[in-house]
């Protein structure tokens, strides 16, 4: 008798659970594997993969999460350093080759870059990051999404994944190899260029300890895309901008103007000072007005944080590195394993086209060597519309509150609203559990409690 009652409750909980999940957002999710990358100790891969797996149709992107893996298991950064990855949109005339490869679309691809702000196709990706990828949130709160999959007539939209990774097993100088110190790669560029992307191109080799034996290893990027089917009026599009602290502001398309992507941090002269900070600033403007929905920086090891300010010093968005403290993938000691993100309360932070903004990027310049090939990119997603006031349904009320709670606590992880939703469910379960305990107490058994707890735990 007691058991029957418990089952009826479980069913009820599960029905409510699925109702909440489907009301809250019609979120779809798919996980893809990049083409195989084969790496040996000290080797570099910097490859561009056209026509990679991606959801199709007229959709709104909600998040893009990346995990470097070997045969299914996460690979730690101290074995394979993920320098960066980026996913770029392009179109080809309809009816192009179906194959997914590094070259087949290369000739005919017409890149459809993000909304700015660098020159040409530089930093034109919709998403991109590096070692911080595992612990950096990319989720866009409802009703916002990146609208894609509506290419011009006669064209088909596809995606290119660029991956730059360095195998640092057995190398003589891990930090040096990761920062692409030219001398470690036996590359000479000249002109005062000591380290950076030009010295660790695809196929280059960093110096490995004498006699070190390490097998070739297959590496993949496993990426999970979340999206919604686009419905006009239900979702609001966001524009994607990337500001680069090295931007010279000129747009004449020479090699030394515009966004330079990387720069060098010189060591502070006072070698015994532990707290030297290299501060680099950029004055820039956005070409569009709107409300800031999401922001995140991209920095390398040595990072101390980034922020976008207004002229009056008001912080628009700040992003600071999360350093690992352990050994496991996602928490590798000394590596930037995440960047904090900002999610302003909807409508609270407005920027105006042409408004003078400042990007500030800080690195540690303590120690004898400084840093080479570092980056100071800042992703800013803005929307030109505010969400409608939420309808007073259970799901929207719930969601609205989740966002405020996350805002109060500062950070807002990719899945935090899901977590909050699940916590809500858990709370619901606790309620039902409480009720069941009470009921079962009346009937002299606590079996039901065990069962519901087990289900509760597996849901969380
Ligand atoms: C780099 O140059 C040194 C000295 O010229 C040589 O011993 C070494 O094998 C070279 N390393 C690589 C990776 O080519
Ligand atoms: C940015 O603009 C301010 C004046 O608004 C100026 O003092 C500063 O030098 C500029 N910085 C750069 C890096 O151009
Ligand atoms: C960068 O460093 C300067 C000087 O220490 C500091 O005033 C500023 O707040 C820092 N900026 C960020 C974004 O951390």
UniProtKB/TrEMBL annotation:
Q: Does the keyword Signal apply?
A: yes
Q: Where are the transmembrane segments?
A: 417-439
Q: Which residues form the signal peptide?
A: 1-24
Superkingdom of the organism of origin: Eukaryota
Which Pfam families is this protein grouped with? SURNod19
Q: Which UniProt keywords apply?
A: Membrane, Signal, Transmembrane, Transmembrane helix
Q: Which residues form a coiled coil?
A: none
* PANTHER family on file: STRESS UP-REGULATED NOD 19 PROTEIN
Q: What is this protein called?
A: MtN19-like protein
Q: Which organism is it from?
A: Linum trigynum
């Amino acid at each position: 008798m007691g058991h029957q009652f418990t089952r009826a409750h479980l069913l009820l909980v599960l029905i409510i659970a699925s109702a909440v999940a489907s009301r809250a957002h019609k979120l779809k999710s798919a996980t893809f594997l990049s083409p195989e990358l084969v790496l040996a100790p000290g080797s570099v891969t910097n490859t561009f993969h056209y026509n990679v797996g991606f959801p199709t149709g007229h959709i709104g992107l909600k998040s893009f999460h990346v995990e470097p893996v070997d045969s299914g298991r996460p690979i730690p950064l101290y074995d394979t350093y993920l320098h960066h990855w980026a996913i770029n949109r392009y179109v080809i005339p309809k009816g192009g080759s179906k194959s997914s490869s590094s070259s087949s679309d290369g000739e005919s691809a017409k890149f459809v870059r993000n909304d700015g702000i660098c020159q040409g196709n530089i930093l034109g990706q919709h998403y991109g990051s590096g070692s911080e990828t595992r612990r950096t949130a990319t989720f866009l709160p409802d009703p916002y999404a990146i609208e894609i999959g509506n290419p011009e007539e006669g064209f088909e939209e596809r995606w290119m994944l660029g991956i730059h990774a360095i195998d640092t097993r057995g190398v003589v100088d891990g930090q040096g190899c990761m920062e692409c110190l030219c001398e470690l790669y036996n590359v000479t560029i000249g002109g005062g260029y000591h380290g950076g992307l030009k010295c660790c191109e695809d196929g280059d080799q960093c110096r490995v300890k004498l006699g070190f034996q390490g097998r070739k290893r297959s590496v993949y990027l496993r990426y999970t895309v979340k999206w919604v089917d686009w419905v006009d009026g239900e979702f609001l599009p966001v524009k994607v901008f990337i500001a680069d602290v090295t931007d010279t502001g000129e747009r004449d398309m020479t090699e030394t103007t515009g966004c330079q992507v990387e720069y060098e941090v010189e060591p502070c002269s006072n070698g015994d000072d532990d707290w030297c900070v290299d501060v680099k600033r950029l004055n820039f403007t956005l070409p569009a007005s709107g409300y800031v929905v999401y922001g995140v920086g991209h920095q390398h090891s040595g990072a101390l944080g980034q922020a976008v300010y207004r002229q009056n010093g008001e912080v628009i968005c700040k992003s600071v590195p999360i350093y690992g403290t352990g050994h496991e993938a996602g928490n590798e000691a000394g590596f930037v394993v995440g960047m904090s993100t900002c999610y302003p309360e909807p409508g609270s932070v407005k920027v105006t086209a042409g408004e003078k903004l400042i990007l500030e990027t800080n690195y540690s310049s303590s120690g004898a060597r400084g840093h080479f090939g570092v980056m100071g990119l800042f992703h800013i997603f803005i929307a030109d519309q505010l969400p409608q006031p939420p309808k007073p349904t259970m799901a929207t009320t719930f969601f609205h509150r989740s966002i405020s709670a996350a805002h109060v606590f500062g950070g807002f992880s990719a899945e935090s609203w899901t977590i909050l939703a699940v916590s809500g469910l858990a709370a619901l379960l606790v309620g039902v559990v409480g009720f069941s305990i009470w009921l079962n107490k009346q009937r002299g058994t606590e079996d039901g409690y065990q069962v519901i707890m087990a289900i509760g735990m597996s849901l969380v």
